[in-house]
């Protein structure tokens, strides 16, 4: 990390406001149609994030630049996303009551790191998690997490038509494994069937649980689109989401605050396909078939990197309400994951 970034991070940590404290807006920070969420005006014509200073990147809302020497793979992913960020979308937002929440474990299970070679299980998560043992937000907390993945096709299970919506959400996030909040962003892919009527719904979203997710309806996505998603914090109560659709070169920036009484811990980073909470219970998982994550990285404020292949990372298999596996990850190298559904989610 260069000295300029160290100074910036140190200042941010020292100035971290208490939960519920209003954030001072930048001169180019704009309100959205949702209270508490803002975006950043498009940078001046000719602005190039690839050669901009760290201060200018932060001012114009771009995500932190990974260290090119210490984190060359993450830097390459960031550079690819910045190059594709051609058209900044003004966020139009839609609040939902649906939640992509913390991992729901079996009764009596603890949110620790399972033994090497053993998968953890959860009733709502599948994917990979890395934990760092942090108990309070600080310099060793996870700072940002990135992932590049393909929007899956949403279906109901083969030969099934349950008369309702089935849901799947794909996201990257911080916290939620052994903490009561999650700072995250990604997309939903939902499928409806009743009689002869079928429908699907796709939307990008961001969330800071225990709030529900907020859809970004002005950033259109369809199955097969390649999404870059990054979330990061600049204090324990200030979160940011950056999403790029590589297929359209459109991107959106959202700045948002933690729910009242909630503060980020930064103790876990995760790449997840989830069956979310809808209507007070866990939704039926949509038959998403498979989903591929690449360029999966997370960093703390000291730029110590982790990925799904790092020490401290472990796979999580999703269970249905009867305790049967319905979604699981397969590692592909150190920084890529192949997720697939099975069992009642598929048949």
Q: Judging by the overall fold, what is the CATH architecture?
A: Sandwich
Order of helices and strands: HEEHHEEEEEEEEEEEEEEEEEEEEE
**Total count of strands:** 23
- Low-pLDDT segments, ≥5 res: 1-22
Mean pLDDT over the full residue set: 91
Q: What name goes with the CATH superfamily?
A: Peptidase G1
What can you see in these coordinates?
This protein is about 10% helix and about 40% strand. With about 350 residues, it is mainly β. It has a single domain (about 5-345), classed as Jelly Rolls. The protein has a 21-stranded mixed sheet that branches. A hairpin with a 4-residue loop joins strand 11 (about 195-210) and strand 12.
Defining key terms:
two-stranded antiparallel ribbon, disordered N terminus, mainly beta, 347 residues, Jelly Rolls, 21-stranded mixed sheet
Layout of strands and helices, then pairs:
Blueprint: H1 3-14, E1 29-31, E2 37-40, H2 54-59, H3 72-84, E3 87-88, E4 93-95, E5 120-122, E6 125-131, E7 142-150, E8 164-166, E9 169-174, E10 182-194, E11 197-209, E12 214-216, E13 226-235, E14 238-245, E15 250-257, E16 268-274, E17 277-278, E18 281-282, E19 290-300, E20 305-306, E21 313-319, E22 325-331, E23 337-341
Parallel strand pairs: 3-15, 5-21
Antiparallel strand pairs: 1-2, 2-15, 4-12, 6-16, 6-21, 7-13, 7-19, 8-10, 9-10, 9-16, 10-11, 11-12, 13-14, 14-15, 17-18, 19-20, 19-23, 21-22, 22-23
């Amino acid at each position: 990390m260069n000295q300029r970034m160290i100074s910036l991070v140190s200042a941010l940590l020292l100035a971290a406001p208490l939960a519920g404290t209003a954030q001072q807006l930048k001169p180019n920070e704009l309100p959205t149609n949702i209270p508490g969420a803002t975006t950043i005006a498009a940078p001046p014509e000719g602005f190039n994030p690839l050669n901009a200073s760290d201060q200018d990147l932060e001012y114009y809302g771009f995500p932190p630049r990974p260290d090119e020497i210490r984190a060359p793979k993450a830097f390459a992913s960031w550079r690819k996303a910045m190059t594709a960020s051609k058209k900044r979308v003004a966020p139009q937002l839609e609040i939902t009551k649906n939640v992509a929440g913390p991992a729901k474990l079996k009764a009596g299970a603890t949110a620790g790191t399972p033994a090497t070679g053993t998968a953890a299980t959860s009733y709502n998560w599948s994917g990979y998690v890395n934990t760092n043992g942090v108990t309070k937000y600080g310099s060793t907390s996870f700072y940002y997490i990135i992932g590049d993945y393909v929007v899956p096709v949403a279906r109901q299970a083969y030969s099934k038509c349950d008369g309702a919506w089935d849901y799947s959400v794909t996201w990257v996030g911080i916290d939620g494994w052994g903490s009561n909040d999650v700072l995250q962003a990604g997309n939903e892919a939902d499928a409806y069937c009743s009689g002869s009527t079928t429908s699907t719904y796709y939307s990008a979203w961001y969330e800071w649980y225990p709030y529900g997710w907020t859809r970004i309806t002005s950033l259109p996505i369809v199955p097969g689109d390649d999404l870059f998603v990054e979330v990061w914090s600049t204090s324990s109560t200030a979160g940011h989401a950056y999403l790029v659709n590589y297929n359209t070169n459109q991107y959106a920036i959202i700045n948002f605050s933690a729910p009242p009484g909630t503060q980020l811990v930064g103790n876990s980073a995760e790449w997840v396909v989830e069956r979310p909470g809808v209507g007070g219970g866990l939704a039926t998982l949509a038959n998403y078939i498979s989903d591929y994550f690449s360029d999966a990285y997370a960093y703390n404020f000291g730029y110590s990197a982790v990925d799904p292949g790092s020490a401290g990372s472990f796979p999580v298999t999703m269970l249905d309400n009867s305790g049967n596996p319905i979604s699981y990850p397969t590692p592909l190298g150190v920084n890529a994951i192949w997720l697939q559904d099975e069992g009642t989610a598929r048949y």
